[in-house]
Design brief:
167 residues, Ubiquitin-like (UB roll), DNA polymerase, domain 1, 5 strands, 10% strand, globular
Length: 167
């Protein structure tokens, strides 16, 4: 059994009861993924598993056997940030920064979901590719909370990256 975390193969934890969140933080020392509510309600622990967003506090590490896990550390660096990381800074999509890693991971998956035509609750026409609107982004990001109130900057950052990809 192996898990690919940020393009590095690692052995899963010996204890099958360890959450992916605890495995990333405590065993792999990837502390960018944050502990929020530890109940799946806030989204601070969001990471990507095979490109899909998951709440790492509700996922057992062993469930990712043979899969690709990407954390905020695997998306970009300070020298070469992911476009969403740069946009969050440019559009003031953060204040304290605690929720930011989960927000960015969720946004990466959300942009892929829209590009693949996956509808949301507010998608007007289920037969066509969803249109990237403020309302669509807010709905899709509703599982990631920001206590500081940086939601407007977060939405602006995501929309800016989405516009760049279309242009």
């Amino acid at each position: 059994m192996t898990i690919r975390v940020n393009d590095v193969e690692v052995e899963p934890p010996g204890d099958a009861r360890v959450s992916l969140l605890d495995f990333l933080r405590e065993e792999l020392h990837l502390t960018g993924t944050k502990v929020g509510c530890n109940q799946g309600a806030c989204g601070a622990c969001t990471v990507l598993v095979d490109g899909e967003r998951v709440l790492s506090c509700l996922t057992l590490a062993v469930q990712t056997d043979g899969r690709r896990v990407t954390t905020i550390e695997g998306l970009g660096s300070s020298e070469d940030p992911h476009p969403l990381q740069a946009a969050f800074v440019e559009h003031d999509g953060l204040q304290c920064g605690y929720c930011t890693p989960g927000q960015i991971c969720a946004a990466v998956a959300m942009l892929r979901e829209i590009a693949e035509g996956m509808p949301s609750y507010v998608t007007a026409d289920l037969a066509t590719t969803p249109v990237m609107t403020d309302e669509e982004v807010r709905e899709r990001m509703s599982g990631n909370l920001c206590r500081c109130g940086a939601h407007n900057g977060i939405i602006d950052a995501i929309l800016a990256v989405a516009r760049e990809r279309v242009a």
